Amino acid sequence: MNDLSLCAAMLDALRDPAMIIDAEERISALNGAMKALAPSARPGDALSLALRAPDMLDAVRRVLVGGKAETANWREHVPVERVFDVFVSPLDIDPEKRCAVVTMRDLTDIKRMERMRVDFIANVSHELRTPLASLLGFVETLQGPARDDPRARDQFLGIMGEQGRRMSRLIDDLLSLSRVEQRQHLRPSACVDLVSVARQVIDGFAPIAPERRVTLILHAPETLNVVGDRDELIRLAENLIGNAIKYGSLPDQDTNVEISLAVLGSDARLRVRDHGAGIPREHIPRLTERFYRVDATASRANGGTGLGLALVKHILMRHRGRLEIASNPGDGANFDAFLPMS
Ligand SMILES: Nc1ncnc2c1ncn2[C@@H]1O[C@H](COP(=O)(O)OP(=O)(O)OP(=O)(O)O)[C@@H](O)[C@H]1O
Ligand SMILES: [Mg+2]
Q1: Residues with Cβ within 5 Å of ion ligand 2?
Q2: Is there a single domain that holds both residue 242 and residue 117?
Q3: Which of 287, 267, 265 is nearest to 227 (CA)?
Q4: What percentage of the chain has pLDDT greater than the value 90?
């Protein structure tokens, strides 16, 4: 085995994409991860033709001439946007003909997590800032102009109470979300009757549904047992049914929300169907993202923070189940939660 083929064999042992570029700027060896990244690249190809990566090519040229290691970035746009950190170092096996070793590190996930973290903090702060500003505003008014006005005082205290509850609901939702996420890998093991879960949640909404002129109708067998965590399944049903009442009601009109439980193969299916305005198609794939709302103003007016469906998704993931959402704008929405029965 000569030195170069030894180097090529070593490349194959690396998990990250890597290749050796010879003094003529041609690929002399590439490993499996690199082939996966650039399927058309072959040993012998000119680097400039094999990959569209001008910064990498410039770095390789400088390394071949100067013999000092360099870093560069490479962005791949197809099929999905990916970002790589590229490290180019000299390989001086043959003193006459310097080569370069290119190794790449996929930064896509790290960048995505970073962006999620930044977005998350921005969203939480934004959601807390509005009620907090309103609370502080009312405190000032109560200390000043409204000090001796009992009617205004009662009204303002009512609003302040509502804003306080809003903030506390947001914190509760965030905590539930992180608790479910923390236990994601621990599959629940209790036996839970979904029918009794649905009944309990429906009873809980009994005072609220008529205010919106919504009638809740349950279609269910006697019992339907799944393996699960009862509290989490209650949160799940509360969110789906609560959304159907909030967003599925119609102004000045009676409507129904149907909740049905059925067995489908090895899964139990909880279906919540409303007959409200529905959801435009382009929003559907994003509904389970944290803080995502089709109409943020309408949701906020309903006391929503956009965390409900994110929680539903995580609860279903922990239960090894899944959520399917369908809607024809103008004819309501249909949310199906599937849960394995054993
Ligand atoms: N049945 C439905 N019909 C129409 N739109 C819906 C329905 N369910 C959810 N949506 C839309 O999806 C968005 C996200 O729902 P999600 O439950 O995550 O948040 P939310 O209800 O706004 O707030 P939260 O659940 O935290 O109180 C809602 O703001 C609403 O725009
Ligand atoms: Mg909700």
Answers
A1: 243, 308
A2: no
A3: 267
A4: 77
Cis-peptide into 79, omega within 30 deg: yes
Which atom of ligand 1 lies nearest, measured to the CA of 300? 22
CATH number of residue 153's parent domain: 1.10.287.130
CA of 13 to the centre of ligand 2 (A): 49
In the sheet where 214-219 sits, what is the strand order? 214-219, 255-264, 267-273, 333-340, 322-327
> Where a domain ends, among 127, 157, 182?
182
321: containing domain: 188-342
Claim to verify: residue 163 and residue 193 sit in the same structural domain: no
The residue from 66, 87, 106 where one domain ends is 106
More confident residue, 182 or 95: 182
- By CB atoms closer than 10 A (0-12, 13-18, 19+), residue 13 is exposed
308: CA distance to ligand 1 center in Å? 7
What was the pLDDT predicted at 145? 85
Q: Check residue 59 and give its pLDDT.
A: 96
